[in-house]
What we know:
Blueprint: E1 5-16, E2 25-27, E3 33-39, E4 44-50, E5 54-63, E6 69-72, E7 78-82, E8 91-96, E9 101-107
Amino acid sequence: MKALQSVVALLLLTFSSTATFAQQTTTLEPGKAIDKTIGADETHSYTLTLASGMYGLLRVDQKGTNLAVSVLSGEGQRLRHADLDGAGIPEQLSLVATDTTQYRIEVT
Length: 108
């Protein structure tokens, strides 16, 4: 059995009542946390590339508000979604790539 390589992407997001509408896609790097502020009506987009057989764990720490996180395929199909009730409870999703794949991660 082929051993799975592991990759962890950690997003730390805080809530801000000041909305900024710059849409930008950030590339997630294994083991590197991102700490950003997200406005009430914003969606932040990220890309994550996993090689065949790699495992990815996404964790979004909610500081002060309830967030939702979705993982989409390169074609835009929603593969996973997490939206637990209440701030302070991390949203977590995991993936195992069967082929080398670039995923889009959306946090709202």
